[in-house]
Amino acid sequence: MSAEAHAPSASEYIQHHLTHWQNHEMGGIVDFSVFNIDSLFFSILLGVTACFLFWRAASKATAGVPGRFQAAVEILVEMVDREAKGIVHNATSRKLVAPLALTVFVWIFLLNTMDLLPLDLLPLIWQKLSGNEHALLRVVPTADLSVTMGMSVSVLLVCLVYNVKIKGAGGWAHELVTAPFGTSKNPVLFLILAVVNLAMQLIEFVAKTVSHGMRLFGNMYAGELVFMLIALLGGAWAFSFQPSGLLLLLLHVVAGWAWAVFHILIITLQAFVFMMLTLVYIGQAHDTH
Fold it and tell me: Could you tell me the pTM of the whole model?
């Protein structure tokens, strides 16, 4: 049988790489019993890796001239602390918020860097280890909407906690029905404004949370798709068996290198943007209207 008979089509190749390794098939449109095992595995693995790296830096820290790794960690910590001071003005809150922002940045950066690995490397290794040539594995957790939305919802919960902690339950409840359009002494107008204000507040919370998670997901998902299209150029050359197909190989190498270099900026920027929005939203929870 010819090699072409075994070669998947472009759509089959992309569909395979966009399918998660799950605990079981989805039983409906929304099934909360389904877990993306690959996203959970790599998220936990890289989270533990980040903790180990910071523990290593702290345990090896010296008062003298720092090494390169210690210097890099100190620069990163100082950068995040500076941004936190500029946005969250409550010194007590920053004791938790600054480390949280640092964790968010480093964790998301590590998750994003998984996109720089050769596209088929880990999936092929997993297929060999599992003995199943059709085994599924997606290695970029931030290209999974459930991961990014889980992060953004976690940030929302932190914001709600600080709203209550800083303003008090009564103060925050009062803000929900009086901002942004104010209130009135007229009972009917007061009720109308309260309903409108509450609706606007709820829309704001939902919009911030959805955009927070969707922004990271959209950028990383698009980056993953571009890498797949570049990989298909190499695949087209491998199965063409034509001298003219060398042009496809050249495009594969050049485009892959160029996109990887550009993607380094994207993965760093997306981690930074997610961290900054986390600080901004928590800072807004400290502000009174």
Answer: 0.91
